Amino acid sequence: METFMGHTQTASYLTGPKFGGSGAPTFLPSISTMQSSYKAYDAYPAPSPLRRSLTTLPWRPSTYYQTAQVNPSMAVTKSLPEPLGYTNQLSELDSIKVPPVFVAARSALYTRYTPNDWSHSNNSNYMASDRVRSSAERLRMDTARLCLETADKTVRTQTDVGKRLGERIGDIQLWKTEVNHETDNMITEIATLVEKKRILEKALQETENPLHIGQECLYNRERRQQIDLVHDQVERELIKEVDIIKRCQEKMRQTVERANMQLSLNRAAQHELEKDSGNKILALNLDGTCHTLKNTSRGINFHDGIQRIDNTLSVPETWAKFSNDNIQRSQSERAASKQMRNEIESVLNQCSNEMWSQWNGVNVGFNQRVQETNETRNKLQTHLSRVLQETFDMEKNIELLKKAIQDKEAPMQVAQTRLTTRTHRPNVELCRDPVQHRLVEEVAEITGTVENLQAKLRQAENALQHLLRTKSTLEQDLSVKNNSLFIDREKCLGMRKTFPMSPRIASY
Questions:
Q1: Is 271 helix (H, G, I), strand (E, B) or coil?
Q2: What digits encode the pLDDT tens for the residues 302-355?
Q3: Angle at the Cα of 284 (from 282 to 288), degrees rounded to 5?
Q4: Cα 444–chain centre separation
Q5: How far, in Å, CA of 451 to CA of 253, rounded?
Q6: What distance in Å separates the CA atoms of residue 356 and residue 283, rounded to the nearest whole number?
Q7: Which pLDDT belongs to residue 260?
Q8: Which of 193, 358, 371, 506 could form an S-S bond across to 241 if both were Cys, CB 3.0 to 4.6 Å?
Q9: Among 256, 248, 250, 205, residue whose Cα is nearest residue 350
Q10: Nearest residue to 59 via CA among 18, 12, 105
Q11: Which of 53-62, 217-226, 262-271 has the lowest mean pLDDT?
């Protein structure tokens, strides 16, 4: 007899026990034996959130209704058959029969754990507890040891920093003393050199008396300078006289300038020394403040990230070298300053003798100069004609250059307009094609050509200005040529004859 039974998600219909070949009823196996015959729930995939639903068991149908063919051999009211062996026993329930249960509650019987599982779970919790406590205890011991080590290390580090700060303060104090000593020496040397320079400037000012006579004669003849300097003995001697005086004055001025430069170098060295000393005083105060700071000091605060800021500019070697270089520079400048003072003494003695040797030689050539006036006038006219012709040619050249520059404006406008128009091409059409290259080259070529032409134009205009100035000078010399004889015979010789005394540098 075959009967079709079915099941739903909320109810099950099972058959009773089957009988074997001998006719004896076959009971269901124990739960411990059945657990080894199927996989765990998690081993089979199931849709969320019904992950552990009974409908996802491997032997349960997943449809809502499903038919099955069964052959019942015993009453449905009998729940379980008698166990056949020790492996199929249900612990204490082996000697008795499991009372009948409702068919809908039979599913819970298959999800129960065994005592072995229960014991294993408890033992696992015990072992996990011991392991966690051991780890926590080790962590506490490591933490206590780390706290002691870091505290000791912090104290030692702070003590070492304080010691190094003290050494640094001593080094700063030492170098500050050396710098201040050298500064005092430099101040003394500067005062001595300033006094020598004052004496030299006074001597330079007193040379204006002989120079005034020589320059007065020379200035009177400088009105015809471009003519009267033609192989003239008077001019050579007069220029030589003025040149000697000017050379002596220039030598004095150069000496004064070198003295001023040396004073500038001395003051620069003094400034560097004072700046270095001031920086060391400030650093000394700051390091002293740092050296006095303690954990209980006021004003200490957190400055996050300050250790990552490295604004240092030197190391101890370069720091010491900087002060040493300043001191050595000051010493070198003091030695140069002493040499400058000796040079000032030598220049004063040399210039005092040279300015007198040329005075008499100038008066010898004045009488011969009157006879040479006509020859020089003819030469002046020749030079003036040449200048006028060259001025005319240069003006034509300037007009030609201006026209050439103006002719380049239209091609430049065309090329730049083309480039500007091509900048409006859309997207990828803005291609740097050969046309673009050639347009850029064209603009560069025209620009270079215009720049060359403008440079030539500027040179031509400068040359024209020089020619115009030369023409003006020659014309001026021609206008005063008639007065040359009066200047040479009356003014120059008359002034030199009445010169009361020869110039000399006052004693210092």
A1: helix
A2: 888 888 888 888 888 998 899 999 999 999 999 999 999 999 989 888 887 777
A3: 120
A4: 34
A5: 42
A6: 61
A7: 92
A8: 358
A9: 248
A10: 12
A11: 53-62
